[in-house]
Amino acid sequence: MIPFPCRLVAPAVALIALVALPAPAALAAPDQASIMMDDDQLLYRTDNARGRALTKMKGLGVDAVRVTVLWRVVAEGADPTAREIRRERTDRARARARRQKARFDPDDPKTYPTRNWDRYDNLVKDASRMGIRVLFDVTGPGPRWAHRNAPPSQRSNQATFKPYPTRFRDFVEAVGKRYSGGYRDENAGRGPLPRVNLWSIWNEPNQAGWLSPQFERRQGQLVPASPALYRRLFHAGRQALESTGHGGDPILIGETAPLGSNSRGARTAMRPGLFLRELVCVAQNGTRYGGADAARRDCDDFARRGPLRATGYAHHPYTRRGAPTRAPRNADDLTIANSAALGTLLDTLSAQSAGALPSGLPLFYTEFGYESNPPDPLNGIPVARQADYNQVGEFLAYTDPRVKAMTQFLLRDVAPVRRFKKGSKPYWFTFQSGLFYRSGRAKPAAFAYSFPFIAFKQGPGQVGFWGQLRFRPDGSPDVAVIQTRPNAQTPWAQLGPEIATNPRGFFTASSPAPSPTAEYRAVYVDPVTLKVANASLATKP
Questions:
Q1: Can you tell me the distance from the alpha carbon of 338 to that of 60, in angstroms, rounded to the nearest whole number?
Q2: Domain that includes residue 131, residue range
């Protein structure tokens, strides 16, 4: 399937000349998988909307989808409180709620309301039919009974305050059992549900919107609190997956947000570098915490539960609106611009913590993207720049051999929050990082995602190229052709020989620059018709 014929290619010329790019490393990531995340389209719309989204993703070349399995959503109405039962409007509804409460077993998926699973069941079935893998990020916030009671000073954090690890373990067990490959759906013909075999535990634990408190006063000192909370949640989630037959599946740790603050409070975003050091109980100077400092951070978790046995590290290397090559000012912030530091930090902490975290962990970038203007004038960047920055981010990930996957967030823009004043910051609280507008019209980023291509200066008079025929099926014996022209008024001409792609569709090349003002594009020529069937956006180095 050719999702974007040549005649539809957007006319925008890429702005990659605005940023400096490295040459591809000798050991790059040629098997890097393409993941997409869009919970709004895949989980919270109609069956038809989900089907259209998956079909579009498949046509773009997506290998897998990342999905948030939200504890609060799955457990809605599973264990109603006495007050909730009393508030039901009819005797029949109250009796039904009492029966639900009596039957509920938190580690047994069949005791949850069946409708709560339907959105996930239908997704994994549709994705399986289309040959798309599913990455389940099992995460809180959970229902009210999943969290400890917050003190009055932290009532605003109640929704994310100190989840019970044992109750999270029960929930992950229920998810693991249901998607083990042998569980039969309670409806839709009672057929077996497809197995899910790619997992991640919790989302952005260094953000108070997902886990709190971030910092807490303990034994007279203000110390990071969320790393210890997450450590126990990961242990619990890992144990649950092992007990349900998923111990051999890839299980990712982290899912960290890229940026934080110098402030220290219950709701302060924690920088990922600090979060990681505290997660494995290593101080800023590289030594392991001991004595009272270790006690404040619950570092005895490792003596009781052992190391954090992850098979990969998940991270969200956003730069907000900044160029993907602009490094953050604080070394503890980790964006795509300094992403090579993430692997180094993980290995260093593994050594400093005596193996509390495995060394050599592969990296999975499980969220990335840029919001565009239009539609969002407050947070977005111009649509042509969005396409360019997305491609540069992909290229930077490709140059790191540890990166096994790159994730685009989102497929389609999300509607603004219309109860707020139009154009205000709350109105634009939702994300507009889609490849498509809400109307379904493609942005330049959609063309760039289907067929990413960049040109960059590789030395005096030399230009390098990188791209991917993402829209082509994996394993296809394809070739890409690079074309050039001195200006937009002249026709395209082939530059150099055809370039064979690898099984993921990636290709690299270099050539003497034909002229200082030349622009370039890559094309895919249909082997039957011998005509250009698809073309990248044009670019200049």
A1: 28
A2: 24-79+107-450
Task: Give the Cα-Cα-Cα angle 208, 211, 217 (nearest 5 degrees).
Answer: 75
Is residue 487 situated within a structural domain?
Answer: no
CA 288 to the chain's CA centroid: 31
The pTM of the whole model exceeds 0.70:
yes
Alpha-carbon distance of 128 to 193, in angstroms, equals 10
Same domain? 316 vs 357:
yes
The DSSP code sequence of 496-538 is: SS-EE--TTSEEEEEEE-S-TT-EEEEEEE-TTT-SEEEEPPB
Q: Where are the alpha helices (DSSP H) in 284-339?
A: 291-296, 301-305
Please give the Cα distance from 176 to 183 (Å, whole number): 10
Asked if 131 and 147 touch (Cβ cutoff 8 Å), the reply is no
User: Please, are residues 370 and 389 in contact by the beta-carbon 8 Å criterion?
Assistant: yes
- For residues 100 and 114, membership in a common domain is answered with no
pLDDT 10s digits, 144-187 = 999 999 999 999 999 999 999 999 999 999 999 999 999 999 98
pLDDT in tens, 426-455: 999 999 999 999 999 999 999 999 999 999
Cis peptide before 213 (omega within 30 of 0): yes
Burial pattern 232-243, b for ≥16 Cβ within 10 A else e, equals bbbbbbbbbbbe
CA quadruple 42, 47, 51, 53: dihedral sign: negative
Q: What is the DSSP letter of 539?
A: B
Q: Measured at the alpha carbon of residue 451, what is the angle toward residues 450 and 454, in degrees to the nearest 5? A: 140
| Token code pair at residue 427 | 């109105």
For residue 225, count other CB atoms closer than 10 A to its CB. 23
Q: What is the CATH number of the domain that holds 250?
A: 3.20.20.80
* Chain centre to alpha carbon of residue 188: 30
